[in-house]
Design goal:
- The complex is a heterodimer.
- By secondary structure, chain A is an alpha+beta fold.
- Chain A is built from 9 helices and 20 strands.
- A 6-stranded mixed beta sheet of chain A has the order 6-7-8-3-9-10, with helices on both faces. In chain A, strands 13-12-11-14-20 form a 5-stranded antiparallel beta sheet.
- The longest helix of chain A has 17 residues.
- The longest helix of chain B is centred in the first third of the chain and has 34 residues.
- Chain B is flat and about 90 Å long.
- Classes of the chains: A alpha+beta, B mainly alpha.
- Chains A and B meet through strand 6 and helix 2 of A and helix 9 and helix 10 of B.
Amino acid sequence: MIEFDSVSLALGSFRLRDVSLTIERGDYYFIVGPSGAGKTVLLEVIAGLHQPESGRVLLRGDEITALPPEKRGIALVYQDYSLFPNMRVIDNVAYGLRVQGTRKKEARAEVAPLLDRFGITHLADRYPGTLSGGEQQRVALARAVAVKPDILLLDEPLSALDPITQEKFIADLKRLHREDGLTIVQVSHSRREAHLLATRMAVIIGGSLVDEGKAGTVLNTPKSRDVAAFVGIENILDGTVTANEDGLATVDVDGLAFEAVTEAVLGEEVSLCIRADDVVITVGESHLSSARNTVVGTVISVVENGPIAEVKVDAGAPLTAVLTRRSVRDLALAPGTSVTLSVKATAIHVIRAFS
Amino acid sequence: MKTGTLPGGPLRGDGEVTPSWWSRRKKRYIDWCTIGFCILGGLLVGLTVLALASITVAELADPAHLLKVAASSRVIESILLTFGAGASAVLLLIIFGTPLAYILARSRPSRFKGVVESIIDIPLILPHTVAGLLVYLLFMRRGWLGAPLLEVGIAFEDALPGTIVAMLFVASPFYINSMREGFEKVPIHLENVARTLGAGTFTTFRTVSLPLSLRHMYSGALLAWGRAIGEFAGVIMIAYYPFIISTLIYYSFTTDGIHTSRSIAFTVIVVSFAVFYILRRMTRYLGRYDDRV
């Protein structure tokens, strides 16, 4: 549906370098990356607010590189909501219809069901400055949806909301994607949001696209160490392959031997990615297990966060595990406790240094 | 001064002496910085007040003469002419200066932009006589613009168009700079959103950028108008006649003496103060939707 073909762009000191990606109809596409990576600029290029210096942008198969934003049928919601402060809520929502030639009364009548759907009917006559962040966000979303766009672009829509409002808003977004069949492109730096919403995603670092694909693939089997760190894989261990038998390699990490499935050859430098929830902790005598990797260590810290707890262990290399609080209690884990950690070889994603 | 016993606090026992006004006052924190600033600023305001008081006392000593001068047709006509010419100059500034201010606000910094900005500010830094001379040279009967425009029937020398164009020249930086500042304060995201909702560049300007800059437009127009109606040297070079108010005061001073020119000046002060005060009051709420946005 949207295709970037080697798009490059310079804005001041910032550069977007040779970005190629494809967003299909019906995708909930996430663009993630650290601050200043160029995510918002990429979104604005899709919207037509910046013209690339080189490369092509295609929409529904047609080249739209030079098509102005008002002719693209792509709506944009900014992180700061960007509601027109000189217009009442209802006129903000009706703005798109008004500029496309609908009379004021008809436009207001047409958007009334939308106000109802987003639960903002009671705010219709208020000015944006008097609304809370969550209310402003819903108005901004209603305004964008009112023009019936094919594609909705969202620039970090959840970052300024409190946790409860975030949950409500995530439900709204899911409904928009499923029921309205909208293609949504969302910029975010939150792995959690990507987990909850994304079907496909791209990772942008320093103006370059470093990974792209199905959300689960990018999140669980990242292509590079940078991407792994960015998508929040808790344990990234650098090591050297010391043996490889039929794809089951032994990797030496600071004297610890890990077994993992990889084609990496003897002597190759690799990074092992282990999700914290794939690390199993046992205390006392070890039980027989199918897990190929077991290491012994000492608990450094236990940080509880709601129903779960993050346990950091020094096992020669630092390792993090995520457990339920009940497990922490049952195992009586505390700093200083001796524990055994086990990880299945298949749960380790291996990144080859020169892949 | 009230000296009765204050209601007893937890630390004050019966029969304890109430602290004096002075001792209580001494304990208060005194912000010398704010006081110093007030004194310095007060001196400046005091100068204007003193000047106004001096002319007011002198004029009110002979109210009959003041009324006679104020009600004379040449003074009334001159005031109306000056205000009208100033308003015409501001209207032209709004038509031509608003688009320029918008382009300056939205264009990226460049050497060319710097040159344009410096050209706009030239009337600010030039002596007014030089500004007058520039206008004269361009719009005189044999001037680059004056000659062809005379052929189509628009004369500038000693004519109202000359007054207006001189006012336009000296007042333009005030309007353009204020308007540009207003446009710069409109977040670019608002314009971007309007574009993605289907508004073209001009519709976005008309429905978003301009309404959100109205306050700056009004304030810039008011400043420019004030500057225009106060102009003297810039105007007399090209249009000594018809008499705008400053020319009339100068003429009266050189022919009738201080008494009459002072009465005209006092009339102008009262009228200008009233007009500007009313215009400022009218716009207290203009363009203020909510400061939190």
